[in-house]
Every structure is written in structure tokens, then in C-alpha cells.
Design brief:
The chain is about 50% helix and about 15% strand. It has 16 helices and 23 strands. Bound molecules: 1-deoxymannojirimycin. The site of 1-deoxymannojirimycin (DMJ) has 9 residues, from helix 16.
Length: about 450
């Protein structure tokens, strides 16, 4: 099985994906429609579970059938994160009800210290995309109020944001941050600036991004942890996984969404450094694994579910050769245990961090590659991923993370991004939408489509 997985040939639940280099069988229209229908049904199942057991709260605990709030008071994270998925899946009535609830009940006037990055990508991003899709100024007003309360994070000596901010008092904390949390803000803050005419949002987030880029090593790489007060690197590990990942995604996407040439230049320089030092050509395929940011010395041979966003970014940038090969590698990672783990040793081909928290990245990459190539092989892959998730993660009350992909033991959480991202990308893969023009619409790291209306 391990050998088969290494070759990218895998059988799962009776479904196969064509081996690398082999032409996949074309899909019939009805087959694709049926898959899209299954995705809608499962979305409905997960959403109803949230509504029944956790409505008005941040997330669902599907095993104990209780609500989970991130802070002492809820911020409606799941409904805000999932609202544009309801719209994309065509459930307008449910979207209207959800919007009404959000507009009536969501207030950010709360004495709680929140994580700027998570609240930006899930809540600010969700409000912005829904405000555009529903042409609703009330959602934009909520986004503006939230943005204003988040702004104090940028008041550090370097301009790079603190990790936490109190929504009522503006008090900040957490000087040790990382490229993902510093560099994954500009799509949301920039869009807020464009839609409200308040350029401060763009300027602060862009300033943070460039200050971070300026601290790259002489070989063009960033590390994993940085102190935003001193500007010094705390961890020199460089890769495309947790704590760094979406920093690269936003360099490329901010260039595309805002025509910001400086972002384009930073992206081009960064991707050249990544391909030179982080890309790892091995007998098991192409991977991107950790190196030291200064010397480029390889420090581990590890990839994971988060890193699986990278084929999507490569495809968007036009590097289809690397995108395809990396997606094949990611597929072999998925196939080793029948579900991908958060950490994977790509020499031994086994999990190092065995959890699967319902992540979307590998599905996003299948969608992005299918959109770029039209190759039905990515539909096959999508079906393999979907069937496995339904088989192993479905519960009576919704969907559950896996604590261990080897044993398939479930854990008690349905993260909001499962509805915002994972199921959305499945649906887009099987039921593409003509009105999502890649030249005009950019998906945030949380899969919120932002439209270039300016
Ligand atoms: C999401 O919240 C976002 O995609 C983020 O950029 C990374 N982690 C999760 C999904 O895995």
C-alpha cells in the first residue's frame, strides 16, 4: 500500500484516482451534478447540527452536542464564516435568515481580548464577502466597526501587529508572532479600505507586510516566529506550513486583487527563494519541507495538511508543472492512511502529527488545479477526499475532526472553516460557478470570495 501511495495510485472506498501521468476518465455532467448534490446534502447536515446544538455560539462540539465559544462571549463565528457558502450553494432563504440574525445580534462592543488573525480571516473576511454578495451596507458597517477595533494591533514599534487586541479597550498583547499572522491581513483590511474609503486600513496592513518582508534572510526566506517589538526572529525554521503558509498566499493575491506591484515584486522574489531552497525533489515526489532560513540547510522532511494549500497558489501563479506534481505528492500523503495528517514524514511516508482537523487546503488545491487544467483527475481526487471525510468524520450531529488518522478516532469539534472552506471548495469543484471570474474574484485564505469592484 505504501508503494502504491508513493506512486500516486490509490484505491479508497471503491474509488480510484488515475496514476500520475495517466489520462483520467472524463466525468459525465450527471455524475458531477450528483456529487455537487451530495456536497449540498452534507453541508445541510453539518449546518443543521450547528443550528440545533450551538446556534448563537461560535462553533459546534458534535460529539457532546454542545456549543463551543472562543471567548467569554460569542462572536457568531460559524454563521459569519458560513454565510457566503450558503449563498454559493444557492440556499438564499437560509442565507437571508442567517443575515438577519447576524445583523440583529452581532456586536463587537465586548470586553474580550481576541486573536487578530483568526478574527480577521473568519469574521472580517466573512462580513466583507457577504456584504458584497448581498449588497448589504449593514454587513459592511459591522465590518467597519470590527476593523476599527482591531486597528490598535498595528501600534507596535515595528508596525507589525500584536497577536491579541481587546475589542472594547484596544489593549494589545502578544509580541511573539509569525509571518502568517502578520502577513495574512491585507486582503481583508485592503478590501475594507476600498469599500469604506478609509485608506488607513490598507496602509497599516500593507506596512506590516512590507516590514516583515524586509526582515527576510539574505537567501530570501522568512522564519517561523518573530518578535514584533524588536523585529528579531525567534525561530529560524522556514517552510510553507503552520505559522508561515498564508503569508505567501497573500503576497500573490494582494498583487492580483489590488494590482499592487510591490506585492507582485515581493511574491516573485519569495517564490524564487522557495523553489530554490524549500522545494525538495525526492524519490517520493516533489515536496516543500523545512530548512534553516539563513543557510538553507534542510532541517526535516515534513509536509502536512496545511502545506497542501501550496499547489493552489502555484497553480494561480501559473506554475502548473510544480502545482501538479506537488498535488500528486499531497494525494499520496492523503492516501497513506486514507485521510491526510497534519504532519507527514515524506521519506518514511507516515504521519508525524496524526490529527486531521477537517482542513480544506488539499480540496482547494484540487479545485484550483481543475480550474486551471480541466483535468478530470482532480475531480477523481475530490471524490476520494469527500468519500473519506463522509466515512470517517460524519456524526449524527454534524462533522467531527479526527484526532488520529490511523485509528480514525474522532474529536469533539466542528471548526467553522469546515463550512466556510472545506465544503465550499468541494462544491466549487463539482459545480463550478461562471460568475466567479478568476480575474475579478480573489478567495481569501478562509475561502471568502472578494470582488474587485474598484
Ligand atoms: C483556516 O482557518 C485558514 O485556511 C487558515 O489560513 C489556515 N488554517 C485554517 C484551515 O486549515
Amino acid at each position: 500500500m505504501r508503494r502504491l501511495a508513493m506512486l500516486g495510485v490509490v484505491a479508497l472506498s471503491g474509488c480510484t484516482a488515475a496514476p500520475t501521468g495517466t489520462a483520467a476518465r472524463e466525468w459525465r455532467g450527471a455524475e458531477r451534478k450528483a456529487m455537487a448534490g451530495r456536497v449540498r446534502e452534507e453541508f445541510r447536515h453539518a449546518w443543521e447540527g450547528y443550528k440545533r446544538y450551538a446556534w448563537g455560539h461560535d462553533e459546534l462540539k458534535p460529539l457532546s452536542r454542545e456549543a463551543h465559544d472562543w471567548y467569554s462571549r460569542p462572536l457568531l463565528i460559524t454563521p459569519v464564516d458560513a454565510l457566503d457558502t450558503l449563498l454559493l450553494l444557492g440556499d438564499r432563504e437560509e442565507a437571508e435568515r442567517t443575515r438577519a440574525y447576524i445583523v440583529e445580534n452581532l456586536s463587537f462592543d465586548k470586553d474580550i481580548s481576541v486573536k487578530n488573525f483568526e478574527i480577521t480571516i473568519r469574521v472580517l473576511g466573512g462580513l466583507l464577502s457577504a456584504s458584497q454578495m448581498m449588497s448589504d451596507p449593514r454587513l459592511l458597517a459591522l465590518a467597519d466597526d470590527l476593523g476599527r477595533r482591531l486597528l490598535p494591533v498595528f501600534d507596535s514599534p515595528t508596525g507589525m501587529p500584536y497577536v491579541y487586541v481587546n475589542l472594547k479597550t484596544g489593549e494589545t498583547s502578544g509580541a511573539e508572532s509569525n509571518p502568517a499572522e502578520i502577513g495574512t491581513l491585507l486582503l481583508e483590511f485592503g478590501t475594507l479600505a476600498r469599500l469604506t474609503g478609509k485608506s488607513v486600513y490598507y496602509d497599516k496592513a500593507k506596512h506590516a507586510l512590507t516590514r516583515l518582508f524586509e526582515r527576510r534572510s539574505p537567501i530570501g526566506l522568512v522564519g517561523e516566529v518573530i518578535d514584533v517589538e524588536s523585529g528579531r526572529w525567534v525561530s529560524p525554521s522556514s517552510h510553507v506550513g503552520a505559522r508561515i503558509d498564508s503569508y505567501y498566499e497573500y503576497l500573490l493575491k494582494c498583487w492580483r486583487l489590488f494590482d499592487d506591484e510591490e506585492c507582485g515584486r515581493m511574491w516573485r522574489e519569495s517564490i524564487a527563494a522557495l523553489n530554490r531552497h524549500v522545494a525538495d525533489e525526492t524519490p517520493t515526489g516533489l515536496w516543500y519541507g523545512p530548512v534553516d532560513m539563513t543557510s538553507g540547510r534542510r532541517t526535516a522532511r515534513e509536509f502536512g495538511a496545511l502545506e497542501a494549500f501550496f499547489p493552489a497558489v502555484l497553480a494561480l501563479a501559473g506554475d502548473l508543472d510544480r502545482a501538479r506534481r506537488l498535488q500528486d505528492s499531497a494525494f499520496s500523503m492523503w492516501s497513506a492512511a486514507g485521510v491526510e495528517p497534519d504532519g507527514f514524514d515524506y521519506v518514511a511516508m507516515r504521519a508525524t502529527h496524526p490529527a486531521y482537523p477537517l482542513r480544506p487546503e488539499i480540496v482547494e488545491s484540487a479545485w484550483s488545479l481543475h480550474r486551471a487544467t480541466g483535468d478530470p483527475r482532480y475531480l477523481d481526487m475530490g471524490r476520494v477526499f469527500f468519500d473519506a471525510i463522509v466515512t470517517h468524520c460524519r456524526t449524527e450531529a454534524g462533522y467531527a475532526v479526527l484526532e488520529d488518522v490511523n485509528t480514525k478516532r474522532q474529536g469533539d469539534l466542528m471548526p467553522s472553516y469546515f463550512l466556510a472552506e472545506t465544503l465550499k471548495y468541494f462544491h466549487l469543484l463539482f459545480a463550478p460557478q461562471d460568475d466567479i471570474d478568476p480575474e475579478k474574484v480573489v478567495f481569501t485564505t478562509e475561502a471568502h470570495p472578494l470582488r474587485r469592484t474598484w
